Amino acid sequence: MLYHARMDLPTLDPCAASAGTDVLLAARPWLRMDVQDGLLFDGVSLAAIAQGVGTPCWVTGADTLLRRVRTLQAAMGQVGVPVAIHFAMKSNDHLAVLALMRGAGVGMDVVSGGELARALHAGIDSAGIVFSGVGKTDAELDAALRAGIGQINVESAEELHRLSARATTLGLTAPVSLRVNPDVESGTHAKIATGHAETKFGVAHDDAAALYAQGTRLPGLRMDGLAVHIGSQIGVPAPFRDAYRRVAALVGDIRAAGHAVRRVDCGGGLGIAYGDDASLAGVPAAWAGAIATTLGGLDLALSIEPGRWLAAPAGLLLSRVIQTKAAPTPFVVLDAAMNDLARPALYDAFHAVVPVAPQRRAGRVMHLVGPVCETGDILAADRRMPEMRAGELVAILDTGAYGAVMSSTYNARPFAAQVMIGGGRWSVIRPRQPVEALWAGESVPGWLVRA
Ligand code: LLP
């Protein structure tokens, strides 16, 4: 089944590419252009932040982030049974973000021992932690068991046996949900679709009931339920509904065979509008509706694992123009690059870019690029926006998810500074990495250089 999901990810949306600043801001009420101070994010001047900490700089809006958590929680309230939210912290794992989530009663979806350690360090209640991923090492499984986390999503028969062995060795019981691959097309970019049969994720739908039954006979396991995640940046409810319908049928089959199914984890994947058309964004109420109609009446503890929808719009990347370069389509060379924001180079992803200064000049089409020595280091291609000059600031929007977490230090470019704003204040939540930190852990073997 193929969906022509309306989405922004695989290609540049020509409408969005030519949209003016006004149109882009109208779709994002948390941003506002002030005639004096320029672009404001949750009422805070971005020029002032750039002045204070320099660029490139990631800015996270705590007020916007919390508002989105509340919106999603309210939407899930309509399902009729509680739906727990586990934030997919792979999208943004900063301790301040995790602290905000904890305060809002949100648990965590982790995919590595590192994320587990981070979540525990942030004070997340272990019962509210779900561990997903196709390749958890023995050490990672042991850490999860010892921490007493609430749910381990098992993705293969092999992992089920290994988890049973680890739990037995430790004398503990593993709370297992079997991740099912429902074999539906999510209509999203190939690199982030996970719910069709050829991906590495989950157990084949047809094998799931038998494997679940097998799990009930293995020592050290408590088979609690099922999990499903079909992909990311999904803007329409149909793929969710299809996947959940298949999971609901499986719940019926497993129960008919005499086994308890107590919970279903509905995964993440709700998309946002990266361009100028807010109607393309995933709608929490529609997602909740897909869950309610398929799984709501089955006496299950339900949960979701959203990342992008919560975090992406709540963050932006502030960057300064190093210089412009004349060309048939002129280049604007920014001080942010693909090592900071990898998504455009990796997925041809579209991110709207808005000048921070209030003054307007005539618009023209340009390429906004980074200084990294790669042709692919293009942050925004063929973009119509006011002519830019050296020293001017731009905000690269919707980078609060899969932004800073995917940064590297390629080209010996230190990790950018991070700032959080909230209640009209701003604080540095991670200083720019000093260049010396790049080689701090390195050593040269004594035998290599002879005196
Ligand atoms: N649960 C599981 C098992 C996942 O694999 C993911 C994302 C999520 C939840 C959260 O999905 P979300 O709600 O954020 O769509 N780096 C890519 C996205 C990769 C998503 C990987 N899995 C990007 O920048 O678009």
Automatic annotation (TrEMBL):
InterPro entries, sorted: Ala_racemase/Decarboxylase_C (IPR009006), DAP_deCOOHase_LysA (IPR002986), De-COase2_C (IPR022643), De-COase2_N (IPR022644), De-COase2_pyr-phos_BS (IPR022653), Orn/DAP/Arg_de-COase (IPR000183), PLP-binding_barrel (IPR029066)
PROSITE patterns linked: ODR_DC_2_1 (PS00878)
Record's keyword terms, sorted: Amino-acid biosynthesis, Decarboxylase, Lyase, Lysine biosynthesis, Pyridoxal phosphate
This protein's pathway: Amino-acid biosynthesis; L-lysine biosynthesis via DAP pathway; L-lysine from DL-2,6-diaminopimelate: step 1/1
An MF annotation (GO) of this entry: diaminopimelate decarboxylase activity
Residue ranges constituting the Orn/DAP/Arg decarboxylase 2 N-terminal domain according to the UniProt record: 65-312
Biological process according to GO: lysine biosynthetic process via diaminopimelate
EC number of the protein: 4.1.1.20
Domain of life, source organism: Bacteria
Class in the EC hierarchy, top level: lyase
Modified residues (N6-(pyridoxal phosphate)lysine): K90
Record carries keyword Lyase: yes
Cofactor: pyridoxal 5'-phosphate
Binding site for substrate: R308, R343, Y347, E374, Y402
Binding-site list for pyridoxal 5'-phosphate: G269, E305, P306, G307, R308, Y402
Residues forming the catalytic site: C373 (proton donor)
Role played: Specifically catalyzes the decarboxylation of meso-diaminopimelate (meso-DAP) to L-lysine.
NCBIfam families from the UniProt entry: lysA
Self-association and partners: Homodimer.
Protein name: Diaminopimelate decarboxylase
Species this chain originates from: Endobacter medicaginis
